[in-house]
Amino acid sequence: MTQTVQRGFDRLAPWYDGLTRLLFGRTLHRSQTGMLDRVEPKQRILLVGGGTGRLLAALCHRFPGVPVDAVDISQQMLQRSRHRLPAAAVENVCFIHFDICQWAPPERYDLIVTPYLLDCLADSTNVAICSRLSRALDEGGHWLLCDFDVPPPSLPMHVPARFLIAGLYLFFRLTCSLAARRLPDFERAFAAASLQKISERRYWGGLMKSRLYGRA
What we know:
By secondary structure, the chain is an alpha/beta fold. The chain is built from 8 helices and 7 strands; from the N terminus they run H-H-E-H-E-H-H-E-E-H-E-H-H-E-E. The chain has helices at residues 3-24, 27-33, 54-62, 75-84, 87-90, 123-134, 158-176, 186-192; strands at 45-48, 68-72, 93-97, 109-115, 137-148, 195-203, 208-215. It has a 7-stranded mixed beta sheet with strand order 3-2-1-4-5-7-6, with helices on both faces. A hairpin with a 4-residue loop joins strand 6 and strand 7. The longest helix is centred in the first third of the chain and has 22 residues, at 3-24. It is globular, with a radius of gyration of 16 Å. It starts with a helix and ends with a strand.
């Protein structure tokens, strides 16, 4: 990603929570936290692109005492995440202002979480990022992917989802100069990283999905 993208997400930060609630109500947050009951990290958590901190706060609350590395390209998003947390939780979080396309993990993790991040990137970039981050995933660890998806044609949400996702890409292209224009091939990226799907939950008619991956 670029400095222009970073500035775009910095400008969006004050409005991000309101916009997501307006569009999706509480469903977006539920899609990020709905599968946390399937994991039990004990060593360290990596959260990439956590937005304004609602998911980070949920992780700190559910897994107290487990250190979290929170990486984001937007300094404003990280600041809002920090302010959302109680003081005791802040001490347990390492806030890292960095472009994930260029960042290499200095630690090993038993849980990696990418909430609505990989859809911002091209297929080739996703393959590189998933391969790089997977090398920092402990044996027996999990990767939680939360992202948009187009439901199968048999589901009523199939056509509306296509239009809504196209509209979201247009919005982020105009506000954050995001280069991506379509959903990437998530399965290709995770397969290249030798990770396989363990379980999946879908929300809002299939528009949103949460997938848990582990070692193949």
